[in-house]
Amino acid sequence: MASATGSMSKADRASRWPVRWRGLRGRVMAAFVLGAGLVALVLAGSVYGISTSYMESQRVRSIERAVNIHAELLRLRLDDPALSGDEAIAELALPTGTIAMLHRGSTWSIADADDGITAAPPVVDPTVAVPQAATRVELAGVPYLRVWAPVDDTAVLYEFAPVQELDSTLAMLRTILLACAALSVTVAAAVGAWAADRALSPLRQVSATASRIASGEQDLRLAHSTDEDLSTTVNSFNAMVDALQRRIERERRLVSDLSHELRTPLTTLTTSATVLAGHREELSQRPRAALDLLVEETSYLRGLLDDMLALARAEAGIHRSEPAPLSLAELLGHLLSSRDSAPGLLDVRDEGMVRGRRMELERALVNLLANADRHGGGLVGARVEREGAEIRVIIDDAGPGVAVADRTRIFERFVTASRATAGTGIGLALVAETVAGHHGTLSCTDRPGGGARFTMSIPAMADFCHTIAN
Q1: I want to staple 407 with a disulfide (CB 3.0 to 4.6 A). Which of 97, 271, 287, 444 is the partner?
Q2: How large is the average pLDDT for residues 99-118?
């Protein structure tokens, strides 16, 4: 048996990409992206919060140590009565950008490590004699940390340390963390796409194999898998296909047996009725009426058997010939000529070249023409035309038409639109099955001007192979 191990082509996968986003593939990728996004958000927030708290606390402690040291130095220098506050604070070695203010008595002394900064500090309460926690303030639009410490009973030292560099560092850290989070989400999306592709690959293989089996490659099977999780599915699928194939083979044998077993007695019965009909004039009236009924019923039974066997063969996929190029216009013209139809009934607008089985299509056209005569009040027109990639055969009749509710039902078995007309009820079902076997469609509509219109559409020969491949 053949095995299906190949995957879909890149073009097929690209054409189905938008659809797959809305299916299982999209949900797998969404789960990866959401999970990675949540983890990245929690990690980035935690790292940023911890880093901000640690760096700010370190900065505050360093400033507090510096202001306490400077306050102690000022206390020693201010013990000299001849030294003013401005002279004492000017001798402090301040870090770059730091502003120091000494409040002594009712006067302020200011020392600025950068000569360019001359902004006045905010108003502070000089009556507080205990150290206060660092407070963020702005001087000329620049962020500072304000820390102060007592020098003695009459003096307080204030220092304003710039934190612009700290804020820049934190901003850079925030940008890096956001970039890392975005990168992790992108990587998660790529990993999710890869994981979804790997996870769905067996399903795509099963789908492709099932489509090929349905198109006629009944010997095709899935290749054996060493994966414990997939082997059960593969084995079950192959077992199901084997069971279906055995069932189809049994049906084929049944059709063959029925064809052989029923045709022989029916042929004998028909022959006997024909022989008796040759001596019809020798019979009295009542045996003659019985003979007419026998001939009529045997003819009906023979037509019913032929239609049932043909329908069973079509449903079981039993074909007496292989598809070959043929002209629907020529085939329809030949059938109309054999019926002695008027030449003007046929309207050929396209040669109607298709690739099909001649005997099956001929039977389908015969059934459509017979349906027009038997149920539609007679054939009034037949047309062959091309519509896009399809060849259409249109059969018009002069009957009362088909009710909208019955336009689909009449293609089922043993269904007729009118009970007053004779028929097996299988002819249109056989036509529908034959057209479906040629990858075509069959429909019933109203004919302009009254009556019914049956339209049989079959892919043109140039598009036939492409239709089967899809």
Answers
A1: 444
A2: 72
Pick the CATH number of 228-314 from 3.30.420, 1.10.287, 3.90.550, 3.30.160: 1.10.287
SS3 126: coil
Residue matched to tokens 């009565």 = 81
Q: What is the pTM of this model?
A: 0.47
* The architecture CATH gives domain 321-469: 2-Layer Sandwich (3.30)
Element (H, E) at 379: strand 379-387
What is the per-residue pLDDT across 316-356, written as a single tens digit (0 to 9) for each?
666 666 788 999 999 999 998 888 887 788 899 988 899 98
CB atoms within 10 A of CB 391: 26
Residues 6+ apart with CB under 8 A from 4: 205, 208, 209, 212, 220, 221, 222, 223
How far CA 396 is from CA of 162, 195, 360, 371, 393, in Å, comes to 95, 57, 21, 10, 10
> How far, CA to CA in Å, does 328 sit from each of 161, 245, 257, 359, 389?
96, 33, 33, 12, 15
Mean pLDDT of the chain: 79
* Interstrand relation of 107-112 and 155-162 (parallel, antiparallel or unpaired): unpaired
Residues near 114 by Cβ (< 8 Å), separated by ≥ 6? 96, 97
DSSP assignment letter at 70: H
Alpha-carbon distance 20 to 18, whole Å?
A: 6
Distance CA 351, CA 365 (A): 16
- The dihedral over CA atoms of 44, 50, 51, 57, expressed in degrees to the nearest 10, equals 160
- The residue type found at 440 is G
**Dist CA 470 CA 11 (whole Å):** 13
pLDDT tens, residue by residue, 192-214 = 888 888 877 888 888 888 888 77
Residues 6+ away with beta carbon under 8 Å from 315: 433
Token pair recorded at residue 188 = 């998660």
Residue 327, H or E segment: strand 324-327
Amino acid at 290: A
* Long-range CB pairs of 147-150, under 8 A, 24+ apart, other chains included: 147/60, 147/63, 147/64, 147/67, 148/67, 148/124, 149/64, 149/67, 149/68, 149/70, 149/71, 150/71
Helix (H, G, I), strand (E, B) or coil at 129: coil
- How many Cβ atoms are within 10 Å of 362's Cβ, its own excluded? 17
Domains 228-314 and 321-469 share a fold: no
Domain ranges of the chain: 228-314, 321-469
Q: Give the CA diameter of the chain.
A: 165
* Helix orientation angle between 285-316 and 427-437, rounded to the nearest 10 degrees: 20
Lookup: tokens for 33: 């992206």
